[in-house]
Backbone:
């Protein structure tokens, strides 16, 4: 799962043995991250107080998320 923050970052987490582990930190927004919406296991969108929406994608489960489109 992912979490958004007032520090403008998105953290991608995974569960392992009843613990949540930080997998990666995504930093592209210039304002607070206010919304996240999962589209598929390989993509999600984020919204921010900077008035942008970002589409994040990865090619496979093993890859990192990359900014695909900024609206």
Residues:
């Amino acid at each position: 799962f992912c979490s958004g923050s007032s520090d403008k970052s998105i953290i991608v987490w995974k569960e392992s043995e009843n613990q949540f582990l930080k997998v990666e930190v995504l930093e592209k927004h210039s304002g607070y991250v206010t919304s996240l919406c999962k589209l598929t296991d390989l993509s999600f969108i984020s919204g921010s107080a900077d008035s942008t929406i970002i589409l994040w994608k990865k090619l496979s489960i093993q890859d990192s998320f990359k900014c695909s489109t900024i609206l």
Remarks:
- DSSP finds no helices and seven strands in the chain.
- The mean pLDDT is 96.
- The two ends are 22 Å apart (CA to CA).
- The CA atoms of residues 13 and 22 lie 5 Å apart.
